[in-house]
Design goal:
alpha/beta, 296 residues, TIM Barrel, eight-stranded parallel barrel, single chain
Length: 296
């Protein structure tokens, strides 16, 4: 009897241990099997097609599998017409890009348009060089962003800023991107981190996710085959072609490594982009397929 009981206890203990190991394995596997639920695209990638056939381009984007789109201009369509086109094709637009000049007197009307379309974010993607070259420019820009963010927040829309490469070139020993993060109210100004530009600018997005968790609800997802070489003048060529740009998954950026920290970063929206695609629809098709299949 004692031996039988001992064997039974041993059996049950072994079974419990095996079950715990299996559960642990499944939990670990589940943790590793994250994916992007809704892949989005920045419509700047297909801007020429948007000019020629606004509705038809949205239809093609939806047919590829995209669920979210980010606008960079509405091509003379009213906010109501934009909203109707999105609904026709089963799309939503969480965000739009607007010029820096629109953060002044035009700002209330910009906010109203975004509310009609159903957007949650308005993003400034570029600050003109003549503004950036002024004394203490980035602190002044941060002040402008805070004011714009305060107004939009009251209307239920979050303001955000999208970077390029120049925010990672030191000005008086300080990175402009760091100046913005330090001087912008984190509740009023979020960041749409362009994961390509920060990479070619020589910095690691994970360091920013670690230092500023939750500040990056939107990201631009685009790839490069190589970091542009430093030319004779000591600068890199980020000009009007950027031949190193490619579809997502066709370059050198380690997307699994980055997106494994998406929770810490606060990422909610992933927008594919290619600034200069030779074949825009082929590019966004390949990018979608890669991100749709990506597990991290």
């Amino acid at each position: 009897m004692g031996l039988r009981n001992m064997n039974r206890r041993t059996f049950l203990g072994g079974t419990a241990a095996a079950g715990a190991a299996l559960l642990s394995s499944r939990l670990a596997s589940g943790m590793a099997e994250h994916k992007i639920e809704k892949v989005g695209v920045q419509l700047y990638t297909v801007r020429d097609a948007m000019k020629q056939d606004f509705d038809g381009t949205l239809a093609k984007v939806a047919a590829i599998g995209y669920k979210e789109v980010e606008f960079a201009g509405y091509f003379d369509h009213s906010p109501k017409a934009v909203r109707a086109a999105l609904e026709r094709h089963g799309l939503v637009s969480p965000a739009s890009h607007v010029e820096y000049a629109s953060l002044g007197e035009k700002w209330p009307s910009v906010i109203e348009s975004s509310k009609i379309i159903g957007q949650s974010y308005i993003v400034n993607p570029w600050v003109e060089e003549e503004i950036r070259n002024q004394p203490d420019s980035w602190k002044r820009i941060a002040d402008t962003f805070n004011r714009a963010g305060e107004i939009s927040k009251k209307a239920g829309i979050q303001f955000a800023y999208h970077n390029h490469w120049f925010e990672f070139i030191p000005v008086n020993g300080k990175l402009p991107y760091d100046i913005l993060l330090e001087n912008c109210d984190p509740e009023l100004v979020k960041m749409e981190l362009d994961l390509c530009w920060i990479t070619v600018g020589g910095h690691d997005p994970l360091q920013y996710f670690q230092k500023y968790p939750g500040r990056f609800p939107l990201v631009h997802v685009k790839d490069v085959t190589a970091v542009p070489k430093v030319g004779p003048g000591g600068t890199q060529d980020f000009g009007s072609s950027m031949k190193e740009m490619t579809y997502v998954g066709g370059g050198i950026i380690d997307w699994k490594r980055i997106f494994a920290q998406a929770g810490r970063a606060g990422i909610r929206h992933f927008f594919v982009e290619h600034d200069y695609p030779a074949s825009p629809f082929e590019s966004i098709q390949k990018s979608y397929q890669y991100l749709h299949n990506l597990r991290f």
